[in-house]
Amino acid sequence: MARWAEMVEDDDDDEYAKLVRRMNPPRVVIDNDACDNATVIRVDRVKKHGILLEAVQVLVDLNLVITKAYISSDGNWFMDVFNVTDQDGSKLQNREVIDHIQKCLESDGYLPPPANGGFVPPEDQFTSIELTGADRPGLLSEVCAVLAALSCNIVKAEVWTHDRRAAAVIQITDEATGLAIHDVGRLSRAQELLSNLMQSDGRCNRGATGVSVGTARTERRLHKMMLDDRVGGGEEAVGGGEERGGCGKARHKAAKVVVMDCTERQYTVVILRCRDRPKLLFDTLCALNDLQYVVFHGTVDAEGASKEAYQEYYIRHVDGHPVRADAERTRLVRCLEAAVERRASNGLELELEVRTEDRVGLLSEITRVFRENSLSIIRAAITTKDGKAEDTFYVSDTYGNPVDGRTIDAVGEQLGHAVLRVKRRGHDASVKHEAEGGAVSVLGSLLKGSFQGLRLIRSYS
């Protein structure tokens, strides 16, 4: 039996492990009657590393909200319960969505979500470019200018910045054919020019570029790229103290993370509290997965009027050991904080939407206008649907401060007020209140739900 469990857990490519999974197909139940305010999804599967993240990926790809989750995967089985709603807080009623969830959670392969009218190019019809390097004002504009000069059309892109570093996954096609670019010389030239851009910060020469043909799970790649970038920079990049914002000012942590020992069961306990937001569970699980930790038990609660999320995990490293050193503990805390902060709003940035007919060079023009008006892009999501560009940018001024009205008016004049929409501006008072809250009772509040998790362990161990 020990040999059976070892093979199932450790080697996805092992033929015996594959046979075991075929003999024990997943069991997925989607129930709209078990809970008053959410659809309950129960998943039982043979355990393998990363299976929890795969299940959550299916749900977040459909833009569903996970309000509660109960996780257990001791022994050879992954047994989890998710309470989910749609974006409006309602139970799932769309038959296509329910069938897609069932099919994905019962499948070993990744199935893309329903397109909903969006542009989902075949995987061999675009080229994917991955970039990491030092962040600075105007960086995305320079990247777009390089690609435009090489007759590359950007059809989709995701850009994140955090702690003065930037990462991007950009999907491009040939301007003339609309297909993936296979010319090795042209791709090498693009990689050379982009590498120079990403390394052109005077204080740091770290930067990386990669080129491939086909699809990638963009958000998972961005998390992994930013983690590798931090680790590649040594201890200073992983965090040598309080992180800094764009103008060098100290930035409050978006999450409160405590890591403790559970010696009775040989687990490490991770407790995380922060303001809830979309895809928070996905982001924290990406960090744990990329750091090679396995979640054996867990409780997630993001339900209630407080809008605060509580996450509690009982983990071990893939080698079977809990966290054993202070340096490893510190690294785990900082990487979880970073995973939360990459998409957390600090209440200062402005959300801008650009909606217009798509055309070659459009993104280069938009980012040039932002740069000329001293706007710094914090995050960006670039998509194309039915021939229309649907781009979202989170911006601040070059010092990390809120954007003033005159600047927005100037940008609107240049891009067209009918094209530019301002979705959110100004400081979120609730974020400020949370950030300024003292740390006096942090540990006590973090531990509030831990006894429930301990009961969960005893019931499944």
Question: Layout of SSEs?
Answer:
Blueprint lengths: L1 H9 L4 H9 L3 E5 L7 E8 L4 H11 L3 E8 L4 E9 L9 H11 L21 E8 L4 H11 L2 E11 L2 E10 L9 H15 L8 E7 L4 H15 L2 H5 L15 E8 L4 E9 L4 H11 L2 E9 L6 E10 L8 H16 L8 E8 L4 H11 L2 E11 L2 E10 L7 H11 L4 E5 L4 H8 L5 H5 L3 H11 L1
Antiparallel strand pairs: 1-2, 2-4, 3-4, 3-11, 5-7, 5-8, 6-7, 6-14, 9-10, 10-12, 11-12, 13-15, 13-16, 14-15
Notes on the structure:
This protein has helices at residues 2-10, 15-23, 51-61, 95-105, 139-149, 184-198, 218-232, 235-239, 280-290, 326-341, 362-372, 405-415, 429-436, 442-446, 450-460, and strands spanning 27-31, 39-46, 65-72, 77-85, 127-134, 152-162, 165-174, 207-213, 255-262, 267-275, 293-301, 308-317, 350-357, 375-385, 388-397, 420-424. The chain is of the alpha+beta class and 461 residues long. Among the domains are: 22-106, ACT domain (Alpha-Beta Plaits), CATH 3.30.70.260; 256-342, Alpha-Beta Plaits (2-Layer Sandwich), CATH 3.30.70; 350-423, ACT domain (Alpha-Beta Plaits, 2-Layer Sandwich). It has an eight-stranded antiparallel β-sheet with strand order 1-2-4-3-11-12-10-9. An eight-stranded antiparallel β-sheet has the order 8-5-7-6-14-15-13-16, with helices on both faces. The longest helix has 16 residues, at 326-341. It is globular, with a radius of gyration of 23 Å. The two termini are 16 Å apart. One of its GO terms (molecular function) is amino acid binding. It comes from Sorghum bicolor (Sorghum).
